[in-house]
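Now for today's protein:

——
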Amino acid sequence: MENNQKHVEANALAPIPQSERQGWVSLALVQAGICVCASSFLEGALLAEAMPLGEAILSGSLGNLLVVIFMTIIGFQGSDLGLASCTLSESSFGKKGARYLVSVVFAINLVGWFGITNEICGDAFTNFMAETFGINIPLIVSNILWGLIMLITAVYGMRAMEKLNAVSIPFLLIVMAVGTYLAIKEYGIDAASEDVERSMSFMSGVSLAFDFYAVGVVTAADVSRFQKNRAETAKSTIWGVLPVAVITLSLGAVLTKISGEYDISMVLIQVGLPFIGILSIILSTWTTNSSNIYSGGLDVVMAFNLPDNRRREVTVVAGIIGTLLGAFGVLDHIESFLSFLAYLVCPVGGAMIADYWIVGKGKPENWHSVEGTNWTGVISWVIGAVCAYLIGYAYSGILIALVAYIVVEKFIPSQSREGNDAKAE
């Protein structure tokens, strides 16, 4: 029992010591696992339906490149200090702002999407068992079953997620290739070159692609805090995110063109390989959802000011709540609200970047937690969130809040500046 507990990651918000930092390859697999999911294929499908195939892939790839750039920048902050994203915000928002604003918004978003994504997996599993074996598993039972299974990985922590992804990512890449081949064989390739009536501009496509990963960008430090240095962080983010993100969106776009179905798992089911299809749904959901509830657990610890070594228990409770809300259909009624939360999440990243890289000059020694509330960060967050919502693209909140922080800081010097923290409320 004691030996097992040693393999379970306990701490949530305390800095990760250098002795526990890891190489870039293992964490690149964790990053890749976040990208291999149904929503990544959906991204390509939406773009392919709105513009020519070549432009769809190019605009989506550019959006993913922006994701990698911002994820790397925030990731550097995590590897510099060994801190999770919500803890990093204690500088730009102050301890009260980080606890009552940042961590609450993060937690609701991540726990909510854990439940919704798990519901998709449970529904697919119930249908598979009924159609293939004639076994009728109630949807609620299926949702709870897979919610608990996915939760186990997140409870054990980053190393467990690495092991899961080391198996699932190669398998899913093979499934992608097989699925695409079978789709072309079944439906032909001619449909891929058919003209489409444009309903989205190229830059709107770039924005759409970014928005799909917006929350993962802002919470990038939750993973990168385990990296040894900035170079390792850059490699794990670039090689873990960009290739897989581009591949999945491209295949989603191509499959939509030739078969009318963006999801490879559904294509596999349609061409007579239901077992591999359902397995790909489960694995792609599992790799993404473990990251959702892992980060969500960190945010709940901060939101409720719980002991740092209770990460495991907190993650279990948060995961069970998300699972039950999804199983009983509660989250279906607030899915639009969870999507709206992206407008509130992204400006947090802009304030964090401005505080660390502009005010703090990108030096770890210049970062420090601020008592009370850092109103410079809160004001820039409000400006970023409102403007992003009016514009209609969540990602713009990062840039707007970043600029707003720099401007507001001229009139209200940030409490994160050395010597100013005594003024914090």
About this structure: Residues 1-5, 421-425 have pLDDT under 50 and may be disordered.
